[in-house]
């Protein structure tokens, strides 16, 4: 008799498409607030990094958000006094275009709408940093081959989910709607903070930076190493813990 050998299921890994090596990598960021503005800052660093490593084009980024910069945004978001009253998406695009000589685009519209359709159609990766469940549901209903990185948080906790939008790919790479199915029934809350102090009472100063830094490690792995096995990340500022979970194992 021979002893039975337990075979560990192979780890599921998402590999970046080959054209990411030879073409501009189209990334759409939906939401330019606490997490979204941090995302754009990371993408500017990534663009410079991969160009320095020999990528012929780097990143082509489109930012979608119809909000304007208000005084409560000046602590937890990547905006300053000079940005007050300007559209967040346009301010961020202009800032990094001037700094790095790029042609990123800021679309001051509420997703989804006709004005955002072309950018979505050409996206290789959609990064959502939105406050309302309906926006996530709209992304999940897109007919798109793009991968989807979603970032969300409350006062001191956050979560990041990387998955697919396409129904077939979604079976292997579940997205945030699979991880949190209750999103599809939650109502939108469009209330806003009235002051910096109120903003800080609702969310810690560094929660957005912590969540974004964790989530953007997935994007960096794709850009630098061409693959990632990270599916779901959890960040807890109260305990200082960060947890990572892989995609469901292959059969």
Can you describe this structure?
By secondary structure, this protein is of the alpha/beta class. The protein has a single domain (14-186, 194-246), classed as Rossmann fold, CATH 3.40.50.720. It has eight helices and ten strands. Helix 4 (133-140) links the parallel strand 5 (125-128) and strand 6. The model is unreliable at 193-197 (pLDDT under 50).
Layout of helices and strands:
Layout: E1 14-15, E2 25-30, H1 34-52, E3 59-64, H2 88-100, E4 105-107, H3 117-121, E5 125-128, H4 133-140, E6 147-153, E7 157-164, H5 167-172, H6 176-179, H7 196-202, H8 207-225, E8 227-228, E9 230-236, E10 241-246
Parallel strand pairs: 2-3, 2-5, 3-4, 5-6
Antiparallel strand pairs: 1-8, 6-7, 7-9, 9-10
Helix pairs in contact: 1-2, 1-8
Domain THIF-type NAD/FAD binding fold: 26-141
Pfam family, one: ThiF
Protein name: PRTRC system ThiF family protein
